[in-house]
Amino acid sequence: MAIIPARGGSKGVPRKNIRKFDGKPLLAYSIAAAKESKNISKFVVNTEDEEVAEIARNFNCDVVMRNPEIAEDHSKITDTVIETLNYFERKNQYFDAVVLLQPTAPLRKGEDIDNAIRLLQSNLETDAVISMVKVEDYHPARMYKFQNGYLNSLMPDYETRNRQELPELYLRNGCIYLIRTSALKREQSLMPEKKIPLIMDAKWAVNIDTEMDVIILEQLLKKWKKQVS
User: Fold this and answer.
1) 121-153 b/e with 16+ CB inside 10 Å = b?
2) How far apart, in Å, are the Cα atoms of 85 and each of 24, 93, 217?
3) 147: CB partners within 8 A, 6+ apart
4) 3 state DSSP class of 220
5) CA 41: distance to chain centroid?
6) Residue 88 belongs to what H/E stretch?
7) In whole angstroms, what is the distance from residue 9 CA to residue 171 CA?
8) In this predicted structure, what is the pLDDT of residue 229?
9) Pairing relation of β-strands 170-180 and 43-47?
10) Where do runs of H (alpha helix) occur along 90-168?
11) Cα–Cα distance between 78 and 80 in angstroms, integer?
12) Which class for 102: exposed (0-12), middle (13-18), buried (19 or more C-beta within 10 A)?
């Protein structure tokens, strides 16, 4: 099952999940990806907001209304996923795994979801597949903490190394969190210990948290449409 969490509230970009990009609300791009997947048997939007729910239904997507107590800024997304699973289990509908598709990281295809599912299916000891991009310019070896009046390197052993000598590191891009249902319930987390990466193209990595991200997405969408058409 694909779960698309779409709260009505947002501080950085107000009402961002229903804000239109190239004529479509932001959450519609995640619904489209779920529809494109050949391995998703059910997809649903989870929200506490009636307007968001109505838009989701207009795109032929099922809706689970969220408990307002877990729809605050500080609420854990894991609680939303478990709430959705419990809703369907009460209706005797069970799923081997769930994939979280955040509307705020919209540039992913059904093929990407299916690639993640294939990875999970072929790695029986793995509990989850998380989409990642390779870290290039913003490598932690170039980052510092400011403590006691001085800069302290996050990776002192690599502070003066050339780029070619730095270890390969990866960053979550927010597009896909795929986890076995049993592991989710056991660890109460979307990031269990036994997880592997799905490496995606960093040029499409964008998360809508600020108005600058909105501008970036609007520009990326022009190229994205040409790629997927």
Assistant:
1) eeeeebbbbbbbbebeeebebeeeeeeeeeeee
2) 28, 9, 31
3) none
4) helix
5) 19
6) helix 77-89
7) 26
8) 66
9) unpaired
10) 110-122
11) 5
12) buried
Per-residue pLDDT, 218: 95
CA 76 from chain centre, in angstroms, equals 14
Output the pLDDT for position 158: 94
- Dist CA 113 CA 132 (whole Å): 13
Low-confidence residues of the chain, pLDDT below 70?
229
Contact, 40 vs 34, CB < 8 A? Answer: yes
Backbone φ and ψ of 210, nearest 5°: -135, 170
Contact by Cβ (8 Å): 3, 84: yes
Nearest 10 degrees: Cα torsion 180, 186, 192, 193 = -120
Residue whose entry in the numeric block shows the structure tokens 């705020």:
104
Six-digit token string for 148: 């006691």
